[in-house]
Amino acid sequence: MLQTTKRPDSPVSIIGAGIAGAWQALLFAQAGHSVTLHERGDAAMTDATSHWAGGMLAPYCEAEVSEPIISRLGLRSLDIWRRELPDTPFNGSLVVAHPRERNDFERFARMTEGHRRLDAAALAQLEPSLEGRFRDALFFPTEGHVEPRRVLPKLHERIVAAGGTIKFDSDVTAADLANLNPKNLVIDCRGLGARDEQPQLRGVKGEMILIETDEVQLARPVRLIHPRWPLYVIPREDNLFMLGATSVEAEDTGVSVRSALELLGAAYAVHPAFGEARIVEFGSGLRPAYPDNLPRIGVRGETIAVNGLYRHGFLIAPALAELTLAYVERGQIDNEVMQCV
Description:
The chain is α/β, with parallel strands linked by helices. Strands 5-6-4-11-12-13-10-14 form an 8-stranded mixed β-sheet. Strands 8-2-1-9-16-15-17 form a 7-stranded mixed β-sheet, with helices on both faces. Strand 12 and strand 13 form a beta hairpin. The N terminus is likely disordered.
């Protein structure tokens, strides 16, 4: 049985200002806790996994390859995104496929909910740039997406506005913070940085390419069925599009030639005009994952570890923060997520 701290007046120190730590800090600060968020990098966050994320808020689409807990946490997170950042785009998402992937497309439709099928005319009405490109599509109208490099600073601003403190270039451990103040409640959101205490964590590389063109206009992410992994085109501001994302069981950095060809090929398959786009950036991030690819909130004394968000960080981080807060304040336990470590 987990034992709650039940100390709502305790100072709360959170390590890691990526998407997991940022949501923890925001909800705890809004609840009246004295919050300090520590980040070993600078305010640009270019070394964080979140910097290389797609930012898709797609719990229904993820049901095709993920456990039900991801959909549950993701659906709850959508409500929190809407509540805390009401300007978050919820334009839905599209899933398309070419004829050779028709069987996989139908399988995707059977394994997911929350969508409706669009014929070619309806697809063209929704996304004029895709007119004549696909004979049909799956439309998930309640899903959304964010641009990680823009939304993280917004979350950081909200934390400060709620009374929290953010310390960049602050490379600390839970032991460091406990030594400074034994009453300190520490929430460890370091991702792969926490392998000094959680050696079972592994990094799963997600590669992305950023391109620029004004010849294609999209209002929502387009996911192209692929035999190995989901490939998607995500619109961003200023005529930019993110192409992502691979899931490679490797911990090196950079983008391989094979992955680049597949990502660029996916964009071209969505629309030939992407062939004339300008490549702005290649990059990759290492997503922290446990062997089962499921998230955990682990409790050990005065330290709570939130980790293993895998490829669902932006989708499930708000709900995980809500669960952590409920545990600290009310002793509420989610048995699917929480455990002693």
